[in-house]
Design goal:
- The protein has 212 residues and is an alpha/beta fold.
- Helices cover 31% and strands 15% of the residues.
- A 5-stranded mixed sheet has the order 3-2-1-4-5.
- Strand 4 and strand 5 form a beta hairpin.
- Helix 2 packs parallel to helix 5.
- The relative contact order is 0.21.
Amino acid sequence: MVRATLWTIAVVVWASASALCFARLWKYEAAAGPAARSPTAWPQDTSVLQERGLPTLILLMHPKCPCSRATVEELAKLMSHAQGRLVARVLMIRPDGVAKFWERTDLWQTAAAIPGVTVVADAQGSESRRFGAATSGQALLYSPDGRLLFAGGITGSRGHSGDNEGRSLVLALGRAEIIPTAAEPPQTPVYGCPLFAESFACQPDGMGPCRK
């Protein structure tokens, strides 16, 4: 009888702890970062090259953000489906005073290997600030004439790849399957680490809390 009671208590404690862990994990995965305050027209003072005749996708990213691995995975799918109808510029932030090649992580290498994608270092985050970004994984799609068509993330949650609204919108806008209107460009949540931080206390798989 005593053994059965102890077993029941142990099961209840285990179930409660599991439920708490799942609740915290779900809350973390669903927590979006601050949205960008991006210019509605291509900045005149940016050094980022805009592609002539094609929409240009800007991705602002922290090279050490584990959550952004999913963003790079979605970028690869996006560019494959776009079939040359848009180009992408990935800007990897590089704070002042860090070691040489600090920003050249696996995220850089993986993104640079995607056809149609150019990866550049964003020294001191000057371009990220110019484009109004605050969260790693912020995507901005501009039309060939420099109009902002989309602002948001291209993952459905933090650190997870899969079909999502952001990627679908960028693809449809890039392939001219959606006619842009004069209204405010569509936006989706951005799931990633703070862009202006040198390092994070994150789990290697991107499932831990991203703290400075």
